Amino acid sequence: MSKVIVRRFRESDREKTLQFLKNIFGGWHSLCQWNWKFRDVEKAQGRKSIIWVMEADGEIVGHLAAIPMRLRIGTEVVPVCQMVDGATSPQYRHKGLYRKLFQEFLNDVAESGFVATFGFANRFVHHLYERQGNFKNICQIKKMFKVLSLRNAANTLRISLLEKSADTGEDSLLKDFFVAQKEKALFMLWNLVRKVLVSTATSILGSRSKSDKIELSETEPKSLGTEFNGSWINLSQDYKFAFERDEEFLNWRYSNPEADYRAYVVRKGNKVAGYVVTALEEKSISLGRLRFSGLKEGFIVDLVAEKDLILPLISAAEEELKKRQACWTECWATDDSHLFKTLRTGTYHQLPDQMYKVYFVAKVHAQQLKGKISAEYSKDILVSLGDSDIV
Questions:
Q1: N or C: which end of the chain has fewer CB within 10 A?
Q2: R_g of the chain computed on alpha carbons
Q3: CA atoms within 13 A on the CB side of 217
Q4: Architecture of domain 143-356
């Protein structure tokens, strides 16, 4: 194997780094997107992104980055960062190289003035973050879903026969799941199928949960922060801590040039009392030689509102997604939180932990904040898909 160099990112690496990200992760498309994620965020947050890479034979074979964010804890706002896009090329895995990249990266973060580092860790990297990085679990993310429309599925589903068996990322994840869980896999798979069937039946029969109708105003996603700016400080008081949703952050977050967000606000009198951001993605999966494509998944990416408006906002977001031919929708919540309970009232089901487990983790660098950023507050914090870089 070629000699591997672990080092900081250089501006001359941009094209090669983008190609690496395209090869490893879904959703990467253009340099405009890269600039938005790693450079425009610096203007919005007033701090530099941190990017480390692994290089072999002049090619980028590993990557780990952190984007600057701000965390609101009561009336205090502190600089933090979030780890994103950590991976190595397949031939360089299981050799201890990512651990070296991870450690160099963490040393850089600690010297850069961030008071805490956050991440959304899947089951593959969670143990590394916990053991080597000394990250603590804040909470496990509850991935909630709801079937919206069988009619949309019938109208958009396409089934095709491939010339030969396809080896896709979806296949690999499914194979990894069955290998890891062994005899438990069929039970877990049946648990998921059962929830899908129950949600489908509820969709056909109509939900028994009722919410008040509200009037939404659609707004330009990249201007959402400007609309919401005067309301965040009051609404943030409902949470122990949350990533700061001020004008600069929201306007940056929902200006991703490669994403199709829709943003809606609800008003009480002259003030904005809440907002919801939705997104839509087309999904496809290969099982052997069969290719299923065309199904559209909706996302409730972000939702902040007065508590009595949360269920009506969810219902309104669902109606908007159904109009755009979404078959089902996904939303994040934390266990036992007000949003989690509201989603259950709205007939959402939790995706099985064993198949879709994600931990919200943190490494607190500032001693005085260790008691404030804690797992004991997991039901009283605000975490959404929009806090991650997944959608």
A1: N
A2: 21
A3: 14
A4: 3-Layer(aba) Sandwich (3.40)
Please state the domain extents for the chain: 5-114, 143-356
| 276-292 per-position pLDDT tens digit | 999 999 988 777 788 88
pTM attached to this predicted model: 0.91
- CATH architecture of the region 5-114: 3-Layer(aba) Sandwich (3.40)
Q: What is the pLDDT, as a whole number, of residue 2?
A: 81
Phi, psi torsion values for 365, nearest 5 degrees: -90, -25
pLDDT for the residue numbered 353: 80
What φ, ψ does residue 277 adopt, rounded to 5°? -120, 130
Find tokens 């040393």 and name the residue.
107
Confidence (pLDDT) at 168: 47
CA angle 206, 207, 211 (to 5 degrees): 125
Antiparallel, parallel or unpaired: β 50-56 and 358-364: unpaired
The answer to whether the 5-114 and 143-356 domains have the same CATH topology is yes
Predicted local confidence at residue 26, as pLDDT = 83
DSSP string, 169-234: HHHHHHHHHHHHHGGGHHHHHHHHHHHHHHHHHHHHH--S--------EEE-GGGHHHHHTTTHHH
Pairwise CA distance, residues 200 & 198, whole Å:
5
**Predicted pLDDT at 209:** 62
